[in-house]
Every structure is written in structure tokens, then in C-alpha cells.
Design a protein that fits this description.
- With 169 residues, the chain is mainly α.
- The chain has a domain at 47-144: Oxygen-evolving enhancer protein 3 (PsbQ), four-helix up-down bundle (Four Helix Bundle (Hemerythrin (Met), subunit A), Up-down Bundle), CATH 1.20.120.
- The chain has helices spanning 4-27, 47-67, 71-91, 100-107, 109-121, 124-144, and strands spanning 94-95, 98-99.
- A hairpin with a 2-residue loop joins β1 and β2 (98-99).
- It starts with a helix and ends in a 25-residue tail after the last helix.
């Protein structure tokens, strides 16, 4: 004998109760709207949020693209990291009393210019040296803002398993 009718008969009370609950939920009055003077407060990213979400992934992708000799991707990643820093400088002009723009200019811009030159020359050795200096600049900036424990390094593995850095694709 097929057990389906018995199984369905056993579930009938569950379906009936669920239907009643759904009808009651639909008939129940909805909650009153919030008062007109309460507005949503936008989330403001902290400096750590911006570094973790905007800079660190781009730093890693730049390094991985250069290691793979994928110069178009490296150039793209460099543009992205520059734009991210420009946005951060606008969003948070000072951090711990220090001018963020001046920190970026001193610690990041010179090595990024060297990275750019290495990318344009398609020179892996120059890229590695310039990228290492960029990484040193990141850590110098962290030390300047009393975060020496945030240590950035040249990536030795990809944190992006869904992206192929091979330039042949």
C-alpha cells in the first residue's frame, strides 16, 4: 500500500493551522508608521572600514596582478587604489588629528608613481621593488597614526579565488 494518503492525512491539521495563522496575520492591524521626525541615520564608515574595504583589497589585487605580469589589470588596480585614497581624503580629512591628505601624499604617492612607471615599462623587477616600497609606505602611515600593529605585506596568495590574474585570459 502506498503511504502517501496516510502521510498527507497526517499533515492536514498542520496545513489547516498554518492557513489559519496566515489569515490571522493578514487580518492583524499593521504597526503604526514611525513618527515623521525620525529619519534613518546613515552609516558613516570609520577609517578602519575604509581601509579594510577600499584599500586593502586593491593593494592585494595590485600586487597579484603585478606578480602575474598582467599589466592592464595592474594599471586598472592602481587607478582604483588612487581613486579610493582620493575618496577617503575627502570623506575623512583628518584622522587622530593628522591631515590624511598629507599622510597619503608623503607615504603613498611617491611609491605609487614608481609602481605606475614599472607597469608602463612592463618591468616585473621594478614593479616588485616599487610595490614593496608602497607596502612600506602603508605601514609607515599606520605607524604615524598609532596603528603599528596593522602590518600590510606583499601578498603571497590570492584572497580572490573567483578572479583569474593570468594575463592570457
Amino acid at each position: 500500500m502506498n503511504g502517501r494518503p496516510l502521510f498527507l492525512a497526517a499533515l492536514a491539521p498542520v496545513f489547516a493551522a498554518a492557513g489559519t495563522t496566515m489569515l490571522l496575520a493578514q487580518a492583524a492591524p499593521s504597526a503604526p508608521p514611525p513618527p515623521a521626525n525620525t529619519a534613518a541615520v546613515p552609516y558613516v564608515m570609520t577609517m578602519g572600514d575604509m581601509m579594510d574595504t577600499l584599500i586593502q583589497p586593491r593593494h592585494a589585487k595590485l600586487g597579484l596582478a603585478g606578480q602575474a605580469h598582467n599589466w592592464p589589470l595592474a594599471q586598472y588596480a592602481l587607478v582604483e587604489i588612487r581613486q579610493a585614497f582620493a575618496g577617503i581624503v575627502k570623506a575623512q580629512p583628518t584622522f587622530k588629528g593628522l591631515p590624511v591628505g598629507q599622510l597619503v601624499d608623503a607615504a603613498i604617492i611617491p611609491p605609487m608613481s614608481a609602481v605606475d612607471a614599472a607597469i608602463k615599462a612592463r618591468d616585473a623587477q621594478k614593479f616588485a621593488a616599487a610595490y614593496a616600497q608602497l607596502t612600506v609606505g602603508c605601514n609607515a602611515c599606520h605607524a604615524a597614526v598609532e596603528h603599528p600593529f596593522v602590518v600590510i605585506k606583499v601578498p603571497d596568495a590570492s584572497a580572490f579565488p573567483n578572479q583569474d590574474f593570468d594575463p592570457r585570459h
